[in-house]
Amino acid sequence: MSKVFSIFTIIEFLTFIIAIICLFKDKSLFWKLAIAYMLVTFSTEFTAVIIGRILHQHNVWLYNIYIIFENCFVSFGLYQFLKQYVNPKPLILVGSGLIFSSYCFEVFSHGFTEVFYSATNNLSAAIYVLYSLYYFYVLLKDDNFIKLKYHPQFWWVVGVLFYYFGGTIINLFDDVFRVKLSTGHWLRWYIYIILNLLLYSFWSYSFICRARQRRLLP
Amino acid sequence: MQSPTTQVTTLIILATLIFLLMPVFLIIYIRLYNQHKKNHVIEKQSMQQKFDAEILKTLVEVQDQTMQSIATELHDNVGQLLSLTSLTLNSINLADQEKAGKKIENSLSLLSKSIKELRELAKLLHGEQIVEHGIGHAIDQEINWLSKTGAYELKVSNDLFDIQISSPDKDLIILRLLQEIINNIIKHAQATIIQIDTYFSDDKLFLKVKENGIGFDYDETKAKKTGMGLNSIHKRIDMINGKLELNSSPQIGTTILIEIPYP
């Protein structure tokens, strides 16, 4: 059983459950998509574990497909949240264009099953960090104040910032210094556990805030 | 001596921690800034509430003043006219047709006068909504009423009839300021001549009232805060970001110049 479940699948499964509980009745497209995205994330991780640990085959192609879903969802989320303050279309289109170009380049240069598309991953991380910072900037510039404590959009973006900004060092240097610890796991594995914990904790909290916001809204 | 792997591990962990700490500081900063924004919004709301309350108070005071004027007018003028009419009609002796005709004629004349006075009163009652017709008309109405007392020689120059812009809240306050200034003159100044000038220039409205009364020590009155009327004038002028210039000399009189950004 422990072979089927990894710490990542557990975290993602719990977030998926929270998303269902909090967002099932939500009428907003983005929050509904959040449930679907968490299902895709959990399924990908679960399938990757089965392919890797039980079937002992390469599962990198699965993550390369997953990147598409991840980028679509995160870009859409940031677009939705920035839209409340500015017109983010040009910004999101440029960012998405860059990510898409990088993805196509890696598909053609590395094939689909050989390596993980780390260049696309790093580029998208940098773009999302910039988007998140821009979101905070427009949030601060806005004349109205918000109740940050219960603001779902804010905490969702905080999760994005922590995950992508926190992963900068390991993304940049992991290929150069691949460090395997005495426990048998790569350093990257531990750091990503922390990053995933942070990301999904903030997202879970944002789902809870969203459910609360929906209840309070007329 | 640490191995290179351990050093790299430590370096990556430390760098990652620093990268994770930066969003923490950012969130703290956003939270503080948001709190500051919240306080600012609350302060603005509170100021708006105070302003609205003051406008309401001003409106009530303007209405009070109107009612007082009506009461005085009814008692001193219309009431007297009607009493006289009643007395004249009661004294008619129908046997003496000639005298009775004269008395009826007199009564009719008194009644016409009463009707005229009542029409004037109706105009004053209508004056509660007077600022709706513009500050120029409101000031004119106020001056007309003052002129009816006949106690003062008035020199008036009101150039506010034709201004195309308006600010109902400010109009109400300006009217009340003029009423308070006039009240102060009537109560304390012992003046015989009052000069009122109003004009609009460079997005500012000017109201100048000059009288030849006994004057007073402005600084002393201001320091003692005894002049409730004066304090109220100051408070209202501050509320609409206006300026007040007051010059008073004993036995020469007082000049008040009010400058208000308008609209």
TrEMBL record, chain A:
Residues spanning the membrane: 6-24, 36-55, 61-79, 91-111, 123-140, 152-173, 189-208
Protein name: Histidine kinase N-terminal 7TM region domain-containing protein
Alphabetically ordered keywords of this record: Membrane, Transmembrane, Transmembrane helix
